[in-house]
Amino acid sequence: MRYHIDTIPVWDALRQKRFCPFCYLKRQLEVKDVDRFLGGSVMEPDIRIKVNEKGFCQKHQAMLWEQKNRLGHALMMESHLEKRRSGASEAFSAAREAAQAASDGGIRKKIRGYRDEREAIRAAASRLSQQAQSCILCDSLRENMQRYLYTFLYLYESDPSFVKTLREGCGICLPHCGDVLNMAADELKGKTLSAFCSDLETITKNTLDSAQTDIHDFTLKFDYRNAGKEIGNSRGALERCVNLLSGCCIGDDPAKE
Fold it and tell me: How does pLDDT run across 221-249, given as a tens digit for each residue?
């Protein structure tokens, strides 16, 4: 699969040197998508159809709520609720039919293609759960982040100055290391793939080593003998450690940079 190349956002993300570049890109995309879905997209038929089908996860529902556009939010939820009511009704109907078959006793029989009644009930339960977990905003983020991962590797392969800036940056969080390494296995070849793996390993090791020292210094500040002292680079160490291990989730917001 080939992706549209959009180098400017990736360069901007790498140059900011405060956050994992992919966390920075993801958060920027997320905020823009929330604004988009509450803007003119509310009334676009193709968007409404997708929202009706997918809905939003808990996190993105909360982000939509925080924008305080109650009418736009309500318009999307009204038609989405209608779609979900229909899906819930079908799932409960299937579960009821299977439960009735189970209560009748006797030899178990196939229920709508399932081996037995309990399997059919579990399938209905799974359908209800999946409806609550789907999210059009998450799907949009995944699609766009794949494009940025591809662009990142394209720049690494084609622009020596990008490699230099990467080596001098603040590193990549472990979850996004996994993502970019996974795509590199498909997109890079030969010596370029080898060089990238080596660079990523070195950069990540240095970042992890630095985080280990900083978080240890941070814990030393809680010793009464060090009260009021600034030890090493302990300021913000906890935030950096958590965001490195889990992706940006605490501390300063990359979208507000």
Answer: 888 887 777 777 888 999 999 999 999 99
Query: Long-range CB contacts (< 8 A, 24+ apart) of 82-91?
Result: 82/52, 83/52, 83/53, 84/55, 84/131, 87/127, 87/131, 88/128, 88/131, 90/127, 91/124, 91/125, 91/127, 91/128, 91/131
Domain boundaries, the chain: 23-137, 142-256
Question: Which tens digits make up the pLDDT trace of 205-221?
Answer: 999 999 999 999 999 88
pTM comes to 0.83
Higher-confidence residue of 48 and 27: namely: 27
Nearest to 10 by CA among 143, 149, 142: 149
Question: Of 226, 223, 254, 222, nearest to 238 (Cα)?
Answer: 222
DSSP for 192-219 reads HHHHHHHHHHHHHHHHHHHHHHHHHHHH
Q: Retrieve residue 255's tokens.
A: 């979208």
CA distances from 1 to 26, 145, 146, 147, 181 (A): 21, 14, 10, 10, 16
- Tokens at 235, concatenated: 């300021």
